[in-house]
Amino acid sequence: LVLHDSEVAKVLSDQERQSLGDHVIDVLAKLHLLDPDSVGLGDLGRKEAYLARQLKRWNKQWEASKTHEIPEMEETSRLLEAQMPEQIGASIVHGDYRLGNMLVEGGRILAVLDWELCTLGDPLADVGYLLNSWVQPGEPGTELIPAVPTAAGGFPSRESLCERYSAATGRDLSGINYYRAFSHWRLAAIGQGVYKRYLVGAMGENRDMDLDAYKNSVHQRAESALALLTG
């Protein structure tokens, strides 16, 4: 199965969902414990200054695609720069690590897919991204990522994932909200680029595209990012 949404996830039993959640974080921990040089990926990308490079890239993207003011984007960018944690080591970073990019059977991952964003850098970026996609049933803000698999219920909590990852890697996740904020902000910048392309007709016909809803989702991402940094 590929768990694209909560309806597909309901095919799994509660026990399988719990086991799958544990396996998702175990596999991520194993990925991050790999030495890139020892597996021939030491030159996949620059290892240092991952967050600084990402902020530069997506600030540039935001300025190029901005169609209206979203003060939360600028304030989040400022705080991400001001509060940037020191990168401890470097690992293989998947870049899009979520249930929708996995083949699963029962309570296990068979394969992790979609490696085109893979690079070297700060592994906690993957953790923050995964946690943002790990929505619990009835959680506010689910409109950002509607019908995500974990909304079916029965999966481990975010807290459980963090504890399991820390135990496996020894990494401190006390500042993980920074990485969650970064993930929301980055996706808002990406979403704004898509919105502008639709707005100017670069994506062809958009009969099935609700531009107002998409515009609003960018705002919501920005607001969520800022709340994680200031809450």
Query: Can you tell me the residue ranges where pLDDT is under 50 for at least 5 consecutive residues?
Result: none
Head-to-tail CA distance between termini? 37 Å
Tally of individual helices: 8
| Coarse shape | globular
Give the % helix.
40-55%
Order of helices and strands: HHHHEEEEHHHH
Please state how the strands of the largest beta sheet are arranged side by side.
Answer: 1-4
Give the DSSP E fraction (strand runs of 2 or more residues): 5-15%
Gyration radius from CA atoms, angstroms: 18 Å
Largest sheet: 2 strands, antiparallel
Query: Care to count the β-strands?
Result: 4
Arithmetic mean of pLDDT: 92
Structural class: mainly alpha
Please characterize this protein's 3D structure.
It is built from eight helices and four strands. The protein is globular and about 45 Å long. The mean pLDDT is 92. It has helices spanning 6-9, 14-33, 50-65, 71-82, 124-133, 158-169, 176-199, 211-230; strands spanning 91-93, 102-105, 108-112, 119-121. The longest helix is centred in the last third of the chain and has 24 residues, at 176-199. The strands form two sheets. It has a two-stranded antiparallel sheet with strand order 1-4. The protein has a two-stranded antiparallel ribbon with strand order 2-3. It is mostly helical and 231 residues long.
